[in-house]
Amino acid sequence: MKNFSIQQLAAFAAAILALGFSSTIGFIYHNWYYFGVTFLTTGVASYLLIRYIFEIFVNRKIKLIYKLIYQTKATKREETYFKYILPKKELDEVGDEVVQWAEQRSAEIEQLKTNENYRKEFLQNLSHEIKTPIFAIQGYVDTLLDGALENPETAVRFLKNASKNVDRMVNLVKDLDEIAKLEMGEQPLNQEVFFIQDIIKEVFDALSIKAAKQNITCSFKKGSEGQTSVFADKEKIRQVLNNLVVNASKYGKQDGSIVASVYKTDEDHVLIEISDDGIGIAEEHLPRIFERFYRTDKGRSRDAGGAGIGLAICKHIIEAHGQTIHVRSKLEIGTTIGFTLATNA
Protein backbone atom coordinates (compact mmCIF):
# COMPACT_ATOMS: atom_id res chain seq x y z
CA MET A 1 0.00 0.00 0.00
CA LYS A 2 2.88 2.39 0.54
CA ASN A 3 3.30 2.68 -3.23
CA PHE A 4 -0.41 3.36 -3.91
CA SER A 5 -1.43 6.54 -5.72
CA ILE A 6 -4.18 8.76 -4.29
CA GLN A 7 -6.73 7.17 -6.67
CA GLN A 8 -5.71 3.63 -5.73
CA LEU A 9 -5.75 4.44 -2.02
CA ALA A 10 -9.22 6.03 -2.33
CA ALA A 11 -10.52 3.02 -4.28
CA PHE A 12 -9.12 0.60 -1.69
CA ALA A 13 -10.66 2.51 1.23
CA ALA A 14 -13.99 2.90 -0.60
CA ALA A 15 -14.10 -0.82 -1.40
CA ILE A 16 -13.61 -1.72 2.27
CA LEU A 17 -16.33 0.72 3.39
CA ALA A 18 -18.74 -0.40 0.64
CA LEU A 19 -18.14 -4.08 1.40
CA GLY A 20 -18.77 -3.60 5.11
CA PHE A 21 -21.90 -1.48 4.65
CA SER A 22 -23.41 -3.61 1.85
CA SER A 23 -22.71 -6.81 3.77
CA THR A 24 -24.67 -5.41 6.70
CA ILE A 25 -27.61 -4.46 4.42
CA GLY A 26 -27.53 -7.83 2.68
CA PHE A 27 -27.49 -9.68 6.02
CA ILE A 28 -30.43 -7.66 7.36
CA TYR A 29 -32.64 -8.03 4.26
CA HIS A 30 -31.28 -11.38 2.99
CA ASN A 31 -31.38 -9.93 -0.53
CA TRP A 32 -28.48 -10.00 -3.00
CA TYR A 33 -30.04 -7.17 -5.03
CA TYR A 34 -29.88 -4.82 -2.04
CA PHE A 35 -26.33 -5.98 -1.44
CA GLY A 36 -25.26 -5.17 -5.00
CA VAL A 37 -26.97 -1.78 -5.19
CA THR A 38 -25.66 -0.76 -1.77
CA PHE A 39 -22.12 -1.89 -2.63
CA LEU A 40 -22.14 0.04 -5.91
CA THR A 41 -23.62 3.29 -4.62
CA THR A 42 -21.63 3.28 -1.39
CA GLY A 43 -18.42 2.41 -3.22
CA VAL A 44 -18.77 5.19 -5.79
CA ALA A 45 -19.81 7.80 -3.23
CA SER A 46 -17.04 6.79 -0.82
CA TYR A 47 -14.44 6.77 -3.60
CA LEU A 48 -15.36 10.28 -4.76
CA LEU A 49 -15.51 11.66 -1.21
CA ILE A 50 -12.28 10.03 -0.03
CA ARG A 51 -10.41 11.00 -3.18
CA TYR A 52 -11.60 14.60 -2.89
CA ILE A 53 -10.56 14.81 0.78
CA PHE A 54 -7.18 13.17 0.09
CA GLU A 55 -6.45 15.47 -2.85
CA ILE A 56 -7.36 18.59 -0.90
CA PHE A 57 -5.19 17.51 2.02
CA VAL A 58 -2.26 16.25 -0.06
CA ASN A 59 -2.26 19.20 -2.46
CA ARG A 60 -2.15 21.63 0.45
CA LYS A 61 0.81 19.77 1.90
CA ILE A 62 2.50 19.69 -1.51
CA LYS A 63 1.93 23.42 -1.96
CA LEU A 64 3.51 24.03 1.45
CA ILE A 65 6.52 21.89 0.49
CA TYR A 66 7.01 23.82 -2.76
CA LYS A 67 6.79 27.10 -0.88
CA LEU A 68 9.65 25.91 1.30
CA ILE A 69 11.92 24.61 -1.45
CA TYR A 70 11.32 27.28 -4.11
CA GLN A 71 12.22 30.89 -3.41
CA THR A 72 10.45 32.49 -6.38
CA LYS A 73 7.00 33.98 -5.79
CA ALA A 74 4.33 33.17 -8.37
CA THR A 75 2.20 35.84 -10.04
CA LYS A 76 -1.60 35.67 -9.91
CA ARG A 77 -1.64 34.23 -13.45
CA GLU A 78 0.92 31.57 -12.51
CA GLU A 79 -1.04 30.64 -9.38
CA THR A 80 -4.21 30.18 -11.49
CA TYR A 81 -2.27 28.04 -13.95
CA PHE A 82 -0.78 25.88 -11.20
CA LYS A 83 -4.16 25.50 -9.45
CA TYR A 84 -6.56 24.83 -12.32
CA ILE A 85 -4.64 23.96 -15.50
CA LEU A 86 -1.38 22.21 -14.62
CA PRO A 87 -1.91 18.48 -13.95
CA LYS A 88 -1.58 17.57 -10.29
CA LYS A 89 1.67 15.82 -9.41
CA GLU A 90 1.76 12.40 -7.86
CA LEU A 91 3.37 11.95 -4.47
CA ASP A 92 6.20 9.95 -6.02
CA GLU A 93 6.98 12.87 -8.36
CA VAL A 94 6.96 15.29 -5.46
CA GLY A 95 9.18 12.98 -3.43
CA ASP A 96 11.68 12.72 -6.30
CA GLU A 97 11.74 16.51 -6.70
CA VAL A 98 12.29 17.05 -2.97
CA VAL A 99 15.17 14.56 -2.97
CA GLN A 100 16.65 16.28 -6.03
CA TRP A 101 16.28 19.67 -4.36
CA ALA A 102 17.97 18.39 -1.18
CA GLU A 103 20.88 16.95 -3.18
CA GLN A 104 21.25 20.22 -5.09
CA ARG A 105 21.23 22.24 -1.89
CA SER A 106 23.81 19.91 -0.35
CA ALA A 107 26.05 20.29 -3.43
CA GLU A 108 25.66 24.07 -3.28
CA ILE A 109 26.63 24.13 0.40
CA GLU A 110 29.72 22.00 -0.29
CA GLN A 111 30.66 24.28 -3.19
CA LEU A 112 30.26 27.35 -0.99
CA LYS A 113 32.51 25.78 1.66
CA THR A 114 35.12 24.95 -0.98
CA ASN A 115 34.93 28.47 -2.43
CA GLU A 116 35.27 29.96 1.04
CA ASN A 117 38.42 27.90 1.69
CA TYR A 118 39.84 28.98 -1.69
CA ARG A 119 38.99 32.61 -0.91
CA LYS A 120 40.79 32.47 2.46
CA GLU A 121 43.80 30.77 0.90
CA PHE A 122 43.87 33.30 -1.95
CA LEU A 123 43.76 36.29 0.43
CA GLN A 124 46.45 34.74 2.60
CA ASN A 125 48.73 34.14 -0.39
CA LEU A 126 48.02 37.57 -1.85
CA SER A 127 48.84 39.18 1.48
CA HIS A 128 52.12 37.28 1.63
CA GLU A 129 53.10 38.15 -1.94
CA ILE A 130 52.50 41.87 -1.33
CA LYS A 131 53.87 41.93 2.21
CA THR A 132 57.24 40.35 1.32
CA PRO A 133 58.43 43.04 -1.15
CA ILE A 134 56.92 45.86 0.95
CA PHE A 135 58.86 44.79 4.04
CA ALA A 136 62.01 44.39 1.93
CA ILE A 137 61.63 47.89 0.50
CA GLN A 138 60.92 49.29 3.95
CA GLY A 139 64.07 47.64 5.31
CA TYR A 140 66.28 49.04 2.57
CA VAL A 141 64.80 52.55 2.89
CA ASP A 142 65.14 52.56 6.70
CA THR A 143 68.75 51.40 6.44
CA LEU A 144 69.54 54.15 3.94
CA LEU A 145 67.92 56.79 6.15
CA ASP A 146 69.86 55.51 9.16
CA GLY A 147 73.17 56.38 7.52
CA ALA A 148 73.81 53.94 4.67
CA LEU A 149 73.49 56.87 2.26
CA GLU A 150 76.93 57.98 3.43
CA ASN A 151 78.39 54.90 1.77
CA PRO A 152 77.79 55.27 -1.99
CA GLU A 153 78.50 51.61 -2.77
CA THR A 154 76.04 50.34 -0.13
CA ALA A 155 73.46 52.97 -1.11
CA VAL A 156 73.50 51.91 -4.77
CA ARG A 157 73.22 48.22 -3.86
CA PHE A 158 70.28 48.84 -1.50
CA LEU A 159 68.51 51.05 -4.05
CA LYS A 160 68.91 48.35 -6.71
CA ASN A 161 67.46 45.74 -4.36
CA ALA A 162 64.58 48.05 -3.47
CA SER A 163 63.95 48.63 -7.18
CA LYS A 164 63.78 44.86 -7.80
CA ASN A 165 61.11 44.51 -5.13
CA VAL A 166 59.16 47.42 -6.61
CA ASP A 167 59.29 45.68 -10.00
CA ARG A 168 58.05 42.49 -8.33
CA MET A 169 55.03 44.34 -6.92
CA VAL A 170 54.32 46.08 -10.23
CA ASN A 171 54.42 42.75 -12.10
CA LEU A 172 52.13 41.15 -9.51
CA VAL A 173 49.57 43.95 -9.83
CA LYS A 174 49.77 43.77 -13.64
CA ASP A 175 49.18 40.01 -13.58
CA LEU A 176 46.20 40.33 -11.23
CA ASP A 177 44.77 43.13 -13.34
CA GLU A 178 45.16 41.03 -16.49
CA ILE A 179 43.39 38.05 -14.90
CA ALA A 180 40.55 40.29 -13.69
CA LYS A 181 40.10 41.72 -17.19
CA LEU A 182 40.20 38.26 -18.76
CA GLU A 183 37.59 36.98 -16.30
CA MET A 184 35.30 39.93 -17.03
CA GLY A 185 35.87 39.75 -20.78
CA GLU A 186 37.37 43.23 -20.89
CA GLN A 187 40.44 42.18 -22.88
CA PRO A 188 39.38 41.69 -26.52
CA LEU A 189 41.14 38.98 -28.50
CA ASN A 190 42.91 40.17 -31.65
CA GLN A 191 42.71 36.86 -33.45
CA GLU A 192 44.56 36.11 -36.66
CA VAL A 193 45.95 33.14 -38.55
CA PHE A 194 49.62 32.31 -37.87
CA PHE A 195 51.98 29.34 -37.66
CA ILE A 196 52.24 28.07 -34.10
CA GLN A 197 55.73 26.62 -34.68
CA ASP A 198 57.08 30.13 -35.42
CA ILE A 199 55.92 31.41 -32.02
CA ILE A 200 57.34 28.36 -30.23
CA LYS A 201 60.73 28.91 -31.91
CA GLU A 202 60.72 32.58 -30.89
CA VAL A 203 59.96 31.66 -27.28
CA PHE A 204 62.68 29.01 -27.28
CA ASP A 205 65.20 31.55 -28.63
CA ALA A 206 64.19 34.25 -26.14
CA LEU A 207 64.60 31.87 -23.18
CA SER A 208 67.68 30.05 -24.44
CA ILE A 209 70.01 31.86 -21.99
CA LYS A 210 67.80 30.91 -19.03
CA ALA A 211 67.64 27.27 -20.17
CA ALA A 212 71.40 27.18 -20.86
CA LYS A 213 72.15 27.79 -17.17
CA GLN A 214 71.00 24.22 -16.49
CA ASN A 215 72.14 22.94 -19.87
CA ILE A 216 68.51 22.29 -20.86
CA THR A 217 67.88 21.74 -24.56
CA CYS A 218 64.70 22.97 -26.26
CA SER A 219 63.41 21.13 -29.31
CA PHE A 220 60.37 19.95 -31.27
CA LYS A 221 59.05 16.41 -31.10
CA LYS A 222 59.73 14.48 -34.29
CA GLY A 223 56.91 15.15 -36.74
CA SER A 224 55.96 18.49 -35.16
CA GLU A 225 58.52 20.65 -36.96
CA GLY A 226 56.33 21.53 -39.94
CA GLN A 227 54.05 24.53 -40.23
CA THR A 228 50.63 24.29 -38.54
CA SER A 229 48.34 27.29 -38.75
CA VAL A 230 46.08 28.36 -35.87
CA PHE A 231 43.51 31.10 -35.40
CA ALA A 232 44.15 32.94 -32.12
CA ASP A 233 45.51 36.07 -30.46
CA LYS A 234 49.18 35.82 -31.39
CA GLU A 235 50.60 37.85 -28.51
CA LYS A 236 48.48 36.18 -25.85
CA ILE A 237 49.45 32.72 -27.11
CA ARG A 238 53.07 33.87 -27.03
CA GLN A 239 52.51 34.78 -23.36
CA VAL A 240 51.06 31.32 -22.67
CA LEU A 241 53.99 29.56 -24.33
CA ASN A 242 56.47 31.83 -22.58
CA ASN A 243 54.95 31.00 -19.16
CA LEU A 244 54.97 27.27 -19.89
CA VAL A 245 58.57 27.21 -21.13
CA VAL A 246 59.73 29.37 -18.18
CA ASN A 247 58.08 26.90 -15.78
CA ALA A 248 59.59 23.94 -17.62
CA SER A 249 63.10 25.41 -17.35
CA LYS A 250 62.55 26.57 -13.76
CA TYR A 251 61.64 23.07 -12.55
CA GLY A 252 63.63 21.12 -15.09
CA LYS A 253 66.62 19.00 -14.19
CA GLN A 254 70.26 19.64 -15.01
CA ASP A 255 71.08 18.50 -18.57
CA GLY A 256 67.38 17.98 -19.17
CA SER A 257 65.15 18.79 -22.11
CA ILE A 258 62.02 20.73 -23.04
CA VAL A 259 60.05 19.35 -25.96
CA ALA A 260 57.23 21.04 -27.89
CA SER A 261 54.65 18.87 -29.65
CA VAL A 262 51.98 19.92 -32.14
CA TYR A 263 49.15 17.58 -33.15
CA LYS A 264 46.11 18.08 -35.37
CA THR A 265 43.31 16.46 -33.35
CA ASP A 266 40.73 17.05 -36.09
CA GLU A 267 40.02 19.41 -38.97
CA ASP A 268 39.20 22.29 -36.62
CA HIS A 269 41.59 21.94 -33.67
CA VAL A 270 45.28 21.69 -32.85
CA LEU A 271 46.82 20.40 -29.61
CA ILE A 272 50.06 22.06 -28.44
CA GLU A 273 52.05 20.48 -25.60
CA ILE A 274 55.16 21.61 -23.71
CA SER A 275 56.92 18.74 -21.91
CA ASP A 276 59.88 18.59 -19.54
CA ASP A 277 61.71 15.80 -17.72
CA GLY A 278 62.06 17.69 -14.45
CA ILE A 279 60.88 17.20 -10.88
CA GLY A 280 57.21 16.64 -11.78
CA ILE A 281 54.07 17.33 -9.74
CA ALA A 282 52.43 15.03 -7.18
CA GLU A 283 49.03 13.71 -8.25
CA GLU A 284 47.10 15.38 -5.41
CA HIS A 285 48.22 18.83 -6.63
CA LEU A 286 47.25 18.43 -10.29
CA PRO A 287 43.58 19.58 -9.99
CA ARG A 288 44.68 22.91 -8.46
CA ILE A 289 47.82 23.99 -10.30
CA PHE A 290 45.90 26.51 -12.45
CA GLU A 291 44.66 28.39 -9.37
CA ARG A 292 46.12 31.80 -8.56
CA PHE A 293 49.03 31.60 -6.09
CA TYR A 294 48.68 27.83 -5.66
CA ARG A 295 52.04 26.16 -5.11
CA THR A 296 52.79 22.47 -4.88
CA ASP A 297 55.75 23.26 -2.60
CA LYS A 298 55.58 26.77 -1.19
CA GLY A 299 59.20 26.99 -0.08
CA ARG A 300 60.73 25.53 -3.23
CA SER A 301 58.44 27.57 -5.50
CA ARG A 302 59.37 30.85 -3.85
CA ASP A 303 63.04 30.00 -4.09
CA ALA A 304 62.54 29.53 -7.82
CA GLY A 305 60.91 32.95 -8.09
CA GLY A 306 57.54 34.13 -9.31
CA ALA A 307 54.22 34.59 -7.57
CA GLY A 308 52.54 31.35 -8.64
CA ILE A 309 50.20 33.15 -11.01
CA GLY A 310 51.59 32.29 -14.46
CA LEU A 311 49.54 29.12 -14.98
CA ALA A 312 46.38 30.92 -13.86
CA ILE A 313 46.98 33.48 -16.62
CA CYS A 314 47.55 30.67 -19.13
CA LYS A 315 44.25 29.06 -18.15
CA HIS A 316 42.29 32.29 -18.50
CA ILE A 317 43.83 33.12 -21.88
CA ILE A 318 43.10 29.67 -23.32
CA GLU A 319 39.55 29.65 -21.94
CA ALA A 320 39.01 33.15 -23.37
CA HIS A 321 39.68 31.50 -26.75
CA GLY A 322 36.95 28.94 -25.97
CA GLN A 323 39.57 26.18 -25.69
CA THR A 324 40.90 23.88 -22.94
CA ILE A 325 44.18 23.42 -21.07
CA HIS A 326 45.31 20.29 -19.21
CA VAL A 327 48.26 18.84 -17.33
CA ARG A 328 49.89 15.41 -17.01
CA SER A 329 52.69 14.84 -14.54
CA LYS A 330 54.51 12.37 -12.33
CA LEU A 331 57.14 12.97 -9.68
CA GLU A 332 60.72 12.64 -10.95
CA ILE A 333 59.39 11.84 -14.45
CA GLY A 334 58.34 15.26 -15.68
CA THR A 335 55.37 17.40 -16.62
CA THR A 336 53.39 18.00 -19.80
CA ILE A 337 50.99 20.92 -20.14
CA GLY A 338 48.90 21.09 -23.27
CA PHE A 339 46.20 23.31 -24.72
CA THR A 340 44.02 23.34 -27.80
CA LEU A 341 43.55 26.07 -30.40
CA ALA A 342 41.23 26.48 -33.35
CA THR A 343 42.66 26.16 -36.84
CA ASN A 344 40.23 28.64 -38.43
CA ALA A 345 37.71 31.34 -37.56
Structure description:
This protein is α+β, with helices and mostly antiparallel strands and 345 residues long. It folds into three domains: 6-89, no CATH class; 99-183, Orthogonal Bundle (Helix Hairpins), CATH 1.10.287.130; 191-342, Heat Shock Protein 90 (2-Layer Sandwich), CATH 3.30.565.10. 61% of the residues lie in helices and 13% in strands. It is built from ten helices and seven strands. The strands form two sheets. A five-stranded mixed β-sheet has the order 2-4-5-7-6. A two-stranded antiparallel sheet has the order 1-3. Strand 4 and strand 5 (269-276) form a beta hairpin. Helix 5 packs parallel to helix 10 and helix 6 (196-206) packs across helix 8. The radius of gyration is 36 Å and the shape is elongated. Residues 299-305 have low confidence and may be disordered.
Task: Walk me through the topology.
Layout: H1 6-29, H2 32-69, H3 76-85, H4 91-145, H5 152-183, E1 191-195, H6 196-206, H7 208-212, E2 217-220, E3 229-233, H8 234-250, E4 257-264, E5 269-276, H9 298-304, H10 310-320, E6 325-330, E7 334-342
Largest sheet: 5 strands, mixed
Radius of gyration: 36 Å
How many runs of DSSP E, i.e. beta strands? Answer: 7
The CATH class of the largest domain, by name, is Alpha Beta
Quaternary state reads single chain
User: What do the pLDDT scores average to?
Assistant: 81
The backbone outline, from C-alpha atoms, is: elongated
DSSP helical segment count? 10
Give the CATH superfamily of the largest domain: Histidine kinase-like ATPase, C-terminal domain
Order of helices and strands: HHHHHEHHEEHEEHHEE
The percentage of residues in β strands lies in 5-15%
- What are the low-pLDDT stretches, counting only 5+ consecutive residues below 50? 299-305
Spatial gap, N to C terminus: 62 Å
